[in-house]
Amino acid sequence: MIRLPRRTLLAAGAALPLVAIRTRPAGAAEFTYKYANNLPATHPLNLRAVEAAARIKDATGGRVEINVFPSNQLGSDTDTLSQLRNGAVEFFTLSGILLSTLVPVASINGVGFAFKDYTQVWSAMDGKLGAYVRGEIDKRGLVAFEKIWDNGYRQITSSAKPIRVPEDLNGFKIRVPVAPLWTSLFKAFGASPISINFSETYSALQTHLADGQENPLAVIDTAKLYEVQKYLSVTNHMWDGFWFLANRRALEALPADAQAIVRREFNRSALEQRQDVAKLNATLEGTLKQKGLTFIATDPAAFRATLKKAGFYAEWQQKYGAEAWSALEGAVGSLT
Ligand code: X2X
Fold first, then answer.
1. Of 133, 175, 185, 249, which residue is the least packed, with the fewest Cβ within 10 Å?
2. Residues in CB range of 103: below 8 A, 6 or more apart
């Protein structure tokens, strides 16, 4: 046995706690972050986000662990946006239209019947219009990654009566997400929009607080809204996407290389998720018919004309201002 002077032993002992503080338990991450969203775990957004989180953990050598919380597990969209801002949640995907309660111009992609097709959507959102919106988001202390995720073209469902023509919306009690653009659009149709967070939507339809709602096919399917709705009118009345948002302080707390990895992998998953939704869109009409929904074709020109006549486009042109409106019209052509 080697005899050490007492002084040496004390010094070694004193050093131990320091060593313990510096060393993480094997396998524990240096940064454990939360990513919240409002969609069911089976939606392509969650399937692809889980993949991104696994790639991030791998590529950062286990330093960054991102736990995915689907289905508003951490709170409604309204609550989660507050949590994102104060840092209780580090990442959140939120519809740009809902984000407009904080960043007004972020709802601009939801202007009724603005985008002709997906080619136009992606070239605008990956191009100048998207860059403009991300710049405005940036001013509010949040970071939006470059690639927006697809929610989709929205369609109207109903449990009461089929919506075939714009006049059928007269007095129709329709759940809309909590944002002024949605309320304005359905008021322009003469409907009675009720603002309800997505987390309460299924039960609002089940209890007939609302007779209808509007969402893309992939949401109607994964959230099982077909269980409480009868008709689906193919209106394509607006295109909606989810910005992948980060709390700036939390993102910037990561080492630069890890920040780049996080950004890269979520952007990659966004592109893959867009493809997933495109594939689903090709089959979901059949799936949802089998699950009991009656599909109704509509004439988009008639719906658009109603909006125009009600002054919807003039109102929003004025609200967004000349710069934002010309960024939109630059992508989709004249709307007024
Ligand atoms: O709340 C909705 O309807 C949803 C899921 O489409 C959005 O996030 C806007």
1. 249
2. 133, 136, 137, 139, 140
For the chain, give the number of residues. 336
C-alpha of residue 215 to centroid of ligand 1, in Å? 7
In a domain, 314, yes or no: yes
Could you give the CA distance from residue 258 to residue 63 in angstroms, rounded to a whole number? 8
Choosing from 215, 224, 237, 243 the residue with most ligand 1 atoms within 8 A of its CB, the one to mutate for a pocket test is 215
Cα–Cα distance measured from residue 323 to residue 140, given in angstroms and rounded to the nearest whole number: 19
pLDDT of residue 3: 54
| CATH number of the domain within which 80 lies | 3.40.190.170
Assess if residue 144 is contained within a domain: yes
Is the Cβ atom of 210 under 6 angstroms away from ligand 1?
no
Rounded Cα gap, residues 107 and 114, in angstroms: 12
Pick from 312, 269, 317: which is nearest to 50 by CA? 269
> pTM of the full predicted structure?
0.92
H helix runs in the chain, sequence order: 6-22, 44-59, 77-86, 96-99, 118-125, 128-138, 180-188, 201-206, 217-222, 248-253, 256-290, 300-309, 312-320, 322-332
Asked if the structure places residue 228 within a domain, the reply is yes
Q: Which numbered atom of ligand 1 lies nearest the CA of 223? A: 5
Domain count, the chain: 1
Give pLDDT tens digits for 72-90. 999 999 999 999 999 999 9
270 vs 254: CA distance, rounded Å: 21
What's residue 25's pLDDT?
75
Range of the domain at 156: 27-332
Rounded to the nearest whole angstrom, what is the distance from the C-alpha of residue 242 to the centroid of ligand 1?
Answer: 9
Given a contact cutoff of 8 angstroms between Cβ atoms, the answer to whether 320 and 108 are in contact is yes
20-75 pLDDT, tens per residue? 455 677 778 999 999 999 999 999 999 999 999 999 999 999 999 999 999 999 99
